[in-house]
Write a structure and sequence with these properties.
Elements: H1 2-110
Length: about 110
């Protein structure tokens, strides 16, 4: 009877230890699940952030291209303005030379 009692107590202690281990395993498993949810959430946040950054990069590239085109067009407009101004000056000079030529021709004709 004493031996049976001792076996019973050992069995009871083993049962309590197993029960405690099971509770700890369940807590650990719950923590693993929680960490997995947090990890998945973090992955989703990172993916979302990367998608936003990709969109911003595309927009920045588009704006940069627009600015480059505007600057290029601005430079072309300035060059066209300079060319027009030079053309007008050359035309004025040509008119002036034509007038002198006409004047010289008249003088020659009068001699």
């Amino acid at each position: 009877e004493e031996k049976a009692l001792k076996v019973w107590e050992e069995a009871q202690a083993a049962y309590e230890a197993a029960k405690q281990a099971t509770v700890q395993q369940e807590r650990a498993y719950g923590e693993v699940l929680r960490q997995e949810r947090v990890s998945n959430s973090n992955v989703e946040k990172v993916q979302s952030t990367l998608a936003r950054q990709k969109d911003r990069t595309k927009e920045t590239l588009r704006r940069t291209e627009d600015l480059y085109i505007w600057k290029e067009n601005s430079w072309l407009r300035e060059e066209a303005r300079k060319a027009k101004s030079l053309s007008e000056k050359l035309q004025d000079k040509a008119d002036e030379l034509q007038n002198k030529a006409d004047e010289l021709k008249r003088e020659l004709d009068s001699i």
